[in-house]
Amino acid sequence: MMLVTLMFFRKKASTPNQPATTPQPSNTWADLVFANIAESICVIAHDGSIRYANDAFARLVQETNDKLIGQPVWRFMYLTGPDSQPLTISKVAAAWSGEDAALLNGIYHFKGKVLDVAAHYVMSSDEHMILVIRDVSETEQARLDADEATKHLKIEQTKIQEIVAKDEAMLRSIGDAVIAIDKDAKLTFMNDSAEQLFAVDAAKLIGKPAVEVLHFYDEKGVLVPPDERMLLKALETGEPQGNEEEARSFYHLPNGTALALALKITPVRLKDTIIGAIGIYRDITHAREVDRMKTEFISLASHQLRTPLSAIKWFSEMLLSGDAGALNGDQSDFAKNISLSTDRMIQLVNSLLNISRLESGRIIIDPKPTNLKDLIQSVINDLHTLIEEKHHTLVVSVHDKLGEIPIDQRLIGQVYLHLLTNAVRYTPSNGEISIFVSANGDHIISQITDNGLGIPVTQQKKLFQKFFRAENAVKVETDGNGLGLYLVRAIVESSGGKVWYKSEEGKGSTFWFSLPKAGMKAQNGEVMLETDHT
């Protein structure tokens, strides 16, 4: 850094005929200091001629000391100033005449460098000015860089504020309720829809723990413990939480109304650190009521259909048995087609009844100690004819030490029946189907594997939806109502287990389902599951 100090030497009073003297360099300690310090030092007379210059000044103006002495300083150095006016002869003259060296102080430019200049009068036998020059180029550049960085930061800050304002406006205007929590599970944001849904004043809740101010209940009206709340699970596990498919979360309004909520919780990450979570809540109370009415309608309609279907089935069997006289070939074929179509209709009606009963929670669950190997064998016996027709190889392996499991044989029998039926139907002739049952911790795992059609990847997400059938399956088996896997999942999940699968088109599928080793919980209910399998 280089600082320029200008010092004026005020002439002392002299006696008559005493000649003025000019400072001369000497070998004093002061001369040694001036010669070796980093700052550039130059002494000039009233006419601007250089009387003394140290080595640093010579290097600054790129000349040798012997060529500087006695020469006008303007010949070697002309300072321009971004903040001060250029250091001109007239400006120096004004400083001399006004005896105010401070007029010359300031920041100047010289040969690409930024110099800090200060000027002072120094009293001696004659008037002189000392210039001490300090190079502040790096400091000035740092300041300019800092100013530029600050400018950009302010611009970016404005942009971020605009984005935040837009995002907040969008969050506040959307129809779903949105809340946000920080890493300590304290509320940091709640949009207008959330205030309306939960009937609260957001201003009074912000900053408070979410689990303390928003209480959720299960379908039976039991308060969900804080450690089971999806908000906290999302923070602890870092995994999204939700119940989009079924509403198992309820919020009780001050007036006692229970709202059914579909919700999705997403953790918020900053690099690898979870800094909070965002919850989206949607009131599906009306939708659930509509579903309930649809379920009741399906149940009622299915019941009404069973009577005429039973009559058609009965009369077609009488025709085929010859009760109304012998049938010719065409008549016999027609009667068989009627009987087969009636069977398919009865199966569809039974499936619809079962779905409505499971969804309404009216199904009777009657657990009894059951040997799973015997249950599976009874299902295989029901499918024996179809298995023989397709010449499938069937492999069954059940862990010998499982013992008897308290389950509802009618319900779990349907799970095995639907999974095995699909495996047999959609596996080409001479295929292989395997059934493995084993223990895994507190659960019993059943695995059904085939080397059949498999399920296209693009359609696997729809696998457990009502009435869904894969395109390749429809081409092979035109019959089917697409309700089997939906029933499988409904039965297993209501029994405390879960279902999962792995499938590859053209190579086959594997389905797993788990059941608690402790068995199923009994439920009084109102109706039994409709099934042809006992």
Short overview:
This protein has 534 residues and is of the alpha+beta class. Helix content is 39%, strand content 23%. α11 packs parallel to α16 and α14 runs antiparallel to α16.
How would you describe this protein?
Helices cover 39% and strands 23% of the residues. With 534 residues, it is of the alpha+beta class. The protein has 4 domains: 3-135, PAS domain (Beta-Lactamase), CATH 3.30.450; 174-283, Beta-Lactamase, CATH 3.30.450; 288-350; 368-516, Heat Shock Protein 90 (2-Layer Sandwich), CATH 3.30.565.10. The strands form 4 sheets. Strands 1, 2, 3, 4, 5 and 6 form a 6-stranded mixed beta sheet that branches. Strands 7, 8, 9, 10, 11 and 12 form a 6-stranded antiparallel beta sheet that branches. The protein has a 5-stranded mixed beta sheet with strand order 14-16-17-19-18. Strand 7 and strand 8 (187-190) form a beta hairpin. It is elongated, with a radius of gyration of 47 Å. The chain starts with a strand and ends in an 18-residue tail after the last strand. The relative contact order is 0.07. The model is unreliable at 1-26 (pLDDT under 50).
